[in-house]
Design brief:
Layout: E1 10-13, H1 29-42, E2 46-50, H2 56-68, E3 73-77, H3 82-91, E4 99-103, H4 115-139, E5 143-147, H5 155-167, E6 172-177, H6 184-197, E7 203-208, H7 215-224, E8 229-232, H8 246-255, H9 272-283, E9 300-301, H10 304-307, H11 311-314, E10 328-329, E11 331-332, H12 337-346, H13 356-370, E12 372-373, H14 375-392
Parallel strand pairs: 1-2, 1-8, 2-3, 3-4, 4-5, 5-6, 6-7, 7-8, 9-10
Antiparallel strand pairs: 11-12
Helix pairs in contact: 1-2, 1-9, 3-4, 4-5, 5-6, 6-7, 13-14
């Protein structure tokens, strides 16, 4: 779209780092490079390449991502210590011109919430955080600070903390609902307050967990309140209930935010299915069959009341092609005659002279046995009735 930073909703894709923190979800270093290539083609703005200090595999994964991408910005997570920052810079060798480091200081303020101890804890948190930003800016052109556990900290202090780290060199600050303790109204209010306290050239992002199923709603609320970067993973993957889903955020932006510049982004949403399938192929992970947008049957309709919705109404609903899928119907005990006729039409069978009530009765009889009527059996029923109808014609 030719947009500049800050003019659109930037997509910070963290499947290869935060998503992989999910229990039993693992990538090889080579797989991380392959997935990063796809994510770059999809059009995400930033790929969270990993945590180089965590393990040799994580370090190699970052290097593979560097080798397999060209222009997408790459972020790495580090602990708030100098040796990790230096190691992170080494891991991104060859891509430092498009690099970012993401980190956070220990939240000492959460351990002491009142009195003199609280004053010292808050002072220590700010001092550590500002020193951390200053050191990081020596090595990286972009530095991201996570305001972790945002819903569990004093809002006034958190605002002061983020303003201080921005002054110390942080280019990006992310409000993180780490423990899923915020709902859309309170999260939006926090983001709005944070936005007002930060310099205009500081990018404000959101990182929403999904323990209570609110990650998408909170992310939307954050964008409406002024955030211009959203952190997402494929299929809500990640620890702590998972993160906001890449596919859901993009679908929302495409459908509800199509005319809202706050939700404009560079992603080719029609590639979503391809990216998800590549993720499944490499991890072996299976999503719930009816998981929104990416489940195997999320666009498969059996019930007659939905199969019979007029096409002029359906034109105004979300189109599965937007995310690289297509709508399908299946015939079963809950189907109606409209769905049966539509399925036969797709099979190039047009039973014009058949008694539709008899057709419906025979299909329902078949459905009573197995629940679902396969296309082959449906065709046999229709063909039998068509043959009979032709024979009875004068």
């Amino acid at each position: 779209m030719g947009m500049k930073e800050g003019e659109n909703m930037e997509i910070f894709e963290t499947t290869l780092r935060d998503g992989e923190q999910q229990a039993h979800l693992h990538f090889t270093a080579k797989q991380k490079g392959e997935m990063a290539t796809l994510l770059e083609h999809l059009g995400v703005d930033v790929i969270d390449a990993g945590f180089p200090a965590a393990s040799t595999v994580d370090l190699e994964g970052v290097r593979h991502i560097v080798d397999q991408t060209d222009t997408v910005r790459l972020s790495v997570l580090t602990r708030p210590i100098k040796k990790d920052i230096i190691r992170a810079a080494a891991a991104l060798k060859g891509a430092m011109h498009r690099s970012r480091i993401a980190t956070s200081a220990r939240p000492f303020d959460m351990k002491s919430t009142s009195g003199l101890r609280a004053h010292h804890a808050r002072k220590k948190t700010i001092e550590w955080s500002t020193q951390l930003m200053q050191e990081a800016r020596v090595h990286f052109p972009e530095v991201q600070y996570y305001a972790i556990c945002a819903g569990n900290r004093d809002i006034g202090f958190l605002t002061d903390l983020c303003a201080s780290v921005a002054d110390a060199g942080a280019t990006h600050i992310v409000v993180a609902d780490t423990l899923s303790t915020l709902e859309p109204n309170s999260f939006g209010a926090l983001v709005s307050r944070m936005k007002a306290a930060l310099p205009a050239d500081t990018t404000l992002g959101v990182h929403c967990h999904n323990q209570l199923g609110l990650s998408l709603a909170n992310t939307i609320s954050g964008v409406v309140a002024g955030a211009t970067q959203v952190e997402v993973t494929i299929g809500n993957t990640g620890d702590g209930g998972g993160n906001a889903a890449l596919e859901q955020v993009l679908a929302y932006a495409s459908y509800f935010g199509a005319d809202d510049p706050r939700f404009a982004n560079r992603c080719k949403t029609e590639m979503v299915a391809e990216v998800v399938n590549a993720f499944i192929d490499r991890t072996g992970m299976k999503f719930s069959p009816n998981k929104p947008l990416i489940g195997d049957i999320s666009f498969l309709v059996e019930t007659g009341i939905h199969q019979a919705i007029p096409s002029d109404i359906m034109r105004h609903t979300f189109h599965p092609e937007t995310v690289g899928r297509r709508a399908e119907i299946t015939i079963g005990r809950h189907s109606g005659i409209a769905g049966i006729l539509e399925q036969l039409e797709k099979m190039n069978m047009r039973p014009k002279n058949v008694d539709q009530r008899l057709l419906y009765q025979q299909v329902m009889h078949a459905a009573q046995r197995s629940g679902t009527v396969p296309s082959r059996e449906l065709g046999q029923i229709a063909k039998s009735l068509m043959t009979r109808a032709d024979a009875e014609r004068p």
